[in-house]
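User: I'm preparing a small set of examples for a lab meeting where we compare how different chains pack in three dimensions. I only have the primary sequence for this one, and I'd like the structure in token form so I can line it up with the others. Please keep the answer compact; I'll paste it straight into my notes.
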Amino acid sequence: MDQFKQHSGIAAPLLQPNIDTDAIIPSREMKVVSKHGLGEGLFAHWRYLAPGSRDENTDFILNQAPYRDASILLTGDNFGCGSSREHAVWALKEFGIRVIIAAGFGSIFYNNCVANGLLPITLDPGHIQRMASEVESEPSQSISVDLEANTVHCGERDYSFELEENHRQMLLQGLDPIGLTLLHQDAIDAFEVSDRKRRSWAYS
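Assistant: Understood. Below is the structure token output for the 204-residue chain.
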């Protein structure tokens, strides 16, 4: 997957809590067997006027300029709850979302984000509301995210965030869980040599 170090982009505020994976990508939109082709179905219940239609609901924020070009999503608590469908992350990424800033995430969705190169940031709801107010007052401004420094810059303020170090390294180095494990290949090989001497019967 792609490395993630820094990113700047337009942020769309979608602040309601408990946005589940069926809202992110309805099951009727999952008509492909790959990661590609899902962006059109992102938030289909809200983006379009009727099921199966592509007539845009102009009241929905991602159908409005400049938010239709957003690469950062500001949202509420428990984002990505519900079913474990990885298609939700694939749809967000294909639409162009690189960062999601929320008060909390569904745990499976959170791990799926990291495994697919999308950065999930957990921040205090008050900080998110302040950023949303900044964005609403000046929609075309960019928010900057620095994973090396673990900071988000919006307006005149910097906000610090934490990320589990394994997850942070996966994103910084563009590695999936297998690739992260293989960074320790020398230690793995040394263990196997030692273990063969102790338990030769296990390798016969």
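A couple of notes for your slides: The first strand starts at residue 6 and ends at 14. DSSP finds eight helices and seven strands in the chain.

User: Perfect, thanks.
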